[in-house]
Automatic annotation (TrEMBL):
The gene is LOC110073127. This is Taste receptor type 1 member 3-like. Its main location: membrane. InterPro entries: ANF_lig-bd_rcpt, GPCR_3, GPCR_3_9-Cys_dom, GPCR_3_9-Cys_sf, GPCR_3_C, GPCR_3_Ca_sens_rcpt-rel, Peripla_BP_I. The lineage of its organism: Eukaryota, Metazoa, Chordata, Craniata, Vertebrata. It is found in: Cell membrane. Gene3D superfamilies: 3.40.50.2300, GPCR, family 3, nine cysteines domain. It comes from Pogona vitticeps (central bearded dragon). The chain crosses the membrane at residues 571-595, 607-629, 641-660, 681-700, 730-749, 761-781, 787-811. The keyword Protease does not apply.
Length: 848
């Protein structure tokens, strides 16, 4: 139904060709007979005119000869002839061709497409209704170049078949629209040029490479331009490039209106100070635009030309174009076609068969009769930058597919020439081709796209009227990577330096962006504060450093903090350790002396139990000091305070017991057992209190290893003795104990002279201890850092020395230097009673 309707609508077009019926078809300029015919659609002209004759609208008339389109068709013919000559590809098979001019126009292209469908080349009306199993004259179509025409032609060709079974396929060489990658809509479309999405990627990479993020984008008013612009804007946004000005170039206006609009666009570009402009345009539109730009005297900007006009000779020849600045072009990567220049030269020199049928020539191409090689020499010189090679590759792709389909055997040089070939079979085969031509790989992805990349070209103007295109980089379509050789780029700026196109200058490393306005290319910069850093992935944020690291202000990274803790090697700690050692040494000396003279009255007066308790516990307390000057671990943190305060409390408890005895307060105790064992009781009780406080502490809020980061650049390992009920409670208990001891030694009335002296000594020691710890508290509370722990060691050592100094040194003095005083009498001791002493030491002392 639908196909018939379409044919009905197209009948007037079809009848046009019918009137041109000729007798037997000779080889003409645009046709050659062969076993298989390849169709070609090329734009020999770029414009059409809609004329009316006697008020009747006419078929559009083509004008404005398009040299590159003509060369593309020659490249196709060159490839066909090469394949015909070849003994390895399609041996013995002759390919023919049938080429039509599209004039870059939908109506003209439709006519050409329908011509391919007709059974009889001379009768377009012989259209068939069932193409599914038909064998059209043309097995494949190369072209057309423009994306919109490709879509139209693909649709027409597929429309006339059973929808799921495309009968024609095209290998297009110039249609870059990414819509054509849609396999649902264009199942039979293949192409030898990359899709526009790759081009957008390449341009965005180029902009990023040179740090241009404030750009303008202009596009032709057609499907190609609008779509390329859309894809580019999207890709740019992802890479933080702002398209600050966007415009569609005018189309279809009369020349003066069009020029006015272009001048307006150029004025805006001039006033915006945007230094980089991307132009997706057809060569004609680009030429018109750049004429306006040259007229507006915009100079020293950067221009990026899309693949369509990246090497357009007509643009390059605009007078004064060399002032516009630096022009980059994205050109489709192509290869050399050795022999092509000679081929064209020979062809144009030959007397052409087309000349005889002047009518046929004039119908398609009136200019073609007068062409000489000189017209093409410049384009052929630069053929690298045009799409000729892609037409050439397209023909080879068809040739290779046919080669497979006909089961050609290269060794025996035979093909199954009689095989029926349907276009849909060729379609399957072409999806599988994989070969190289002129060392360029040719195959098609699932979307019908090739593995072709781009060349980045730089225009160079040679005064007065010459130019060259230099290749300064390339884009790999598989890797999706643009590489640019910067040393080859000559910047056309005042100072020859890289031009800048940014809304605001880039932030320095270590600064974050403070966005202003809607564009995220416009911002102010702010230093990241110390303790945070700026990473490239989040330009608008400062990321805080992890706990174990630090950073100065305006930093791009964090540094590991130096781990510090109180070590023996620190000077103060060394001094403390030495002091501790000395204390332990004098303790050992005193102990040794006491042991040696254990029988002397002076020593016996002191009593063994309290003396040994004091010595042992203060030794323990001293030893615990070493736990404060090693690398702290959690266990050490948990152990050190209980050991320190526990032993110190035992020491004080023993002192308290002695004080109670010497001061005679013992007698005031009610219970007899208490009177007898008050010393042991005091020790037990105070140990129990310490134990209980520790239990509470460890249950509630135990000490732990702290990684202190308050100081810059340093990770301080220290034990955190949580305030309450831990450290404070232990300290308070010890302090109260000392206070009580002081109280007892003050209140008590000693029995005899010696007892009073002993009480005074204890009192003196305890008062010293109280002073030391009273001073300790404010010093401890107000200080910070690793040396704080030393205060505690110092206080502990001083307390122990105070006890030894006032209680033991006098005894030692008497024993060593005043033997005349070392008598029972002097010490008011009980007469020596060794057996009792040995069996019941505490009882013996109790009597003292
Ligand atoms: C094909 O072969 C003919 C005759 O051998 C030769 O003149 C012609 O140049 C060849 N064409 C190509 C494209 O190789
Ligand atoms: C080809 O070159 C000749 C001589 O330079 C010129 O007169 C003619 O217009 C050119 N043809 C085309 C189509 O450009
Ligand atoms: C094409 O063939 C080459 C080897 O001849 C192979 O490495 C490559 O993967 C093939 N490519 C595809 C798309 O099949
Ligand atoms: C243009 O420059 C190229 C390379 O520098 C040179 O080969 C060519 O002859 C020049 N053409 C003209 C018309 O000056
Ligand atoms: C870049 O171009 C220079 C010549 O202009 C060449 O010497 C150099 O090798 C090229 N570098 C790369 C990476 O291709
Ligand atoms: C463009 O270049 C000019 C001069 O080289 C400079 O003053 C201006 O700031 C640049 N514009 C942008 C947007 O970078
Ligand atoms: C081997 C062969 O058939 N070569 C022919 C290929 O086609 C050209 C014309 O396009 C002929 O000239 C060759 O003879």
């Amino acid at each position: 139904m639908a196909p018939k309707l379409l044919l009905g609508l197209l009948a007037p077009i079809l009848s046009l060709r019918m009137s041109k019926a000729k007798e037997d078809a000779p080889a003409t300029r645009f046709n050659a007979p062969g076993d298989f015919i390849i169709g070609g659609m090329f734009a020999f002209h770029s414009k059409v005119q809609y004329l009316t004759v006697d008020g009747k609208p006419q078929f559009p008339a083509c004008y404005s000869f398009y040299l590159i389109g003509y060369l593309q068709h020659l490249a196709m013919r060159f490839a066909i002839e090469e394949i015909n000559n070849s003994t390895s590809l399609l041996p013995g098979i002759r390919l023919g061709y049938e080429v039509h001019d599209t004039c870059n126009n939908e109506a003209v292209a439709t006519k050409a497409a329908l011509a391919f469908l007709s059974r009889d080349p001379e009768n377009d009306n012989a259209a068939q209704c069932d193409y599914a199993n038909a064998k059209p004259r043309v097995i494949a179509v190369v072209g057309p170049s423009s994306s919109s025409l490709s879509m139209l032609v693909t649709r027409i060709l597929n429309f006339l078949s059973i929808p799921e079974l495309p009968i024609f396929f095209q290998v297009s060489f110039g249609s870059s629209s990414s819509y054509l990658s849609d396999r649902q809509t264009f199942p039979s479309f293949f192409r030898t040029i990359p899709s526009d999405s790759r081009q957008a990627d390449a341009i965005v990479q180029l902009l990023s490479k040179f740090n241009w993020n404030w750009v303008a984008a202009l596009a032709t008013d057609n499907l190609y331009g609008r779509q390329a612009l859309e894809i580019f804007t999207q890709e740019a946004l992802l890479k933080d490039i702002c398209v600050a000005y966007e415009a569609i170039l005018p189309d279809g206006l009369n020349p003066s209106e069009q020029n006015a609009k272009l001048i307006d666009i150029a004025d805006r570009l001039e006033n915006s100070h945007i230094n980089a402009t991307v132009v997706f345009a057809s060569p004609e539109d680009a030429e018109a635009l750049l004429r306006a730009v040259v007229a507006t005297r915009i100079t020293r900007r950067v221009w990026i030309a899309s693949e369509c006009w990246s090497a357009s000779p007509s643009v390059a020849l605009i007078p004064g174009i060399s002032n516009i600045g630096t022009l980059f072009g994205i050109a489709i990567k192509s290869g050399a076609m050795p022999g092509f220049a000679e081929y064209v030269q020979n062809l144009l020199a030959q007397p052409r068969p087309g000349r005889t049928t002047e009518e046929e020539v004039n119908e398609q191409c009136p200019e073609c009769g007068s062409l000489t090689y000189a017209n093409f020499s410049r384009a052929i010189q630069n053929s690298r930058f045009y799409t000729m090679f892609n037409a050439y590759k397209a023909v080879y792709a068809i040739g290779h597919a046919l080669h497979q389909l006909l089961h050609c055997d290269t060794a025996s040089r035979t093909c199954d020439a009689d095989r029926e070939v349907y276009p849909w079979q060729l379609l399957e085969e072409i999806a599988r081709v994989n070969f190289t031509v002129e060392s360029e790989p040719v195959y098609f992805t699932e979307t019908g796209d090739p593995p072709t990349g781009y060349d980045l070209i730089l225009w160079d103007w040679i005064p007065p009227k010459n130019h060259t295109f230099g290749i300064v980089g390339s884009y790999d379509a598989l890797e999706r990577q643009l590489t640019v050789n910067e040393s080859k780029i000559k910047w056309n700026t005042e100072d020859g330096k890289l031009p800048v196109s940014r809304c605001t200058q880039e932030c320095k490393p270590g600064q974050k962006r403070w966005l202003r306005g809607e564009h995220n290319c416009c911002y102010e910069c702010e230093d990241c504060p110390a303790g945070s850093f700026q990473d490239q992935a989040h330009p608008t944020e400062c990321t805080p450093c992890p706990q174990h690291q630090w950073s100065p202000a305006q930093s791009t990274k964090c540094f590991n903090r130096a781990v510090e803790y109180l070590e023996v090697t620190d000077l103060l700690a060394t001094i403390m350790v030495a002091l501790t050692g000395l204390t332990l040494a004098q303790m050992a000396a005193v102990t040794g002396m006491l042991l040696r003279h254990h029988a002397s009255p002076a020593v016996r007066y002191m009593g063994r139990f309290p003396a040994s308790t004091v010595v042992l516990s203060s030794a323990c307390c001293c030893t615990s000091c070493f736990l404060f000057v090693t690398k702290p671990t959690d266990t050490i943190c948990k152990l050190r305070q209980p050991i320190f305060f526990g032993s110190f409390a035992v020491c004080l408890a023993a002192l308290l017991g002695t004080a109670v005895r010497r001061s005679g307060l013992e007698q005031t105790l009610k219970r007899r057992w208490l009177r007898k064992h008050h010393m042991g009781f005091s020790i037990l009780l105070n140990t129990a209190v310490q134990g209980l406080l520790c239990l509470l502490w460890y249950y509630w809020n135990p000490p732990f290893l702290e990684e202190n980061t308050e100081l810059d650049k340093i990770l301080l390992l220290q034990c955190e003795d949580s305030a309450f009920p831990g450290f404070t409670a232990l300290l308070a208990h010890v302090y109260c104990l000392a206070l009580f001891c002081c109280f007892c030694s003050l209140v008590g009335q000693g029995g005899n002279r010696m007892d009073r002296r002993a009480t005074k000594a204890i009192n003196f020691a305890v008062v010293l201890i109280l002073i030391i710890w009273t001073l300790f508290v404010p010093a401890y509370v107000t200080s910070q850092g690793k040396f704080v722990a030393l205060f505690q060691i110092f206080a502990g050592l001083a307390s122990i020395l105070a006890i030894f100094g006032s209680c033991y040194y006098p005894v030692c003095y008497v024993v060593l230097f005043a033997p005349h005083l070392n008598t029972d009498d002097y010490f008011s001791c009980l007469p020596q009673d060794p057996p009792a002493d040995k069996e019941k030491p505490s009882a013996a002392e109790a009597k003292g």
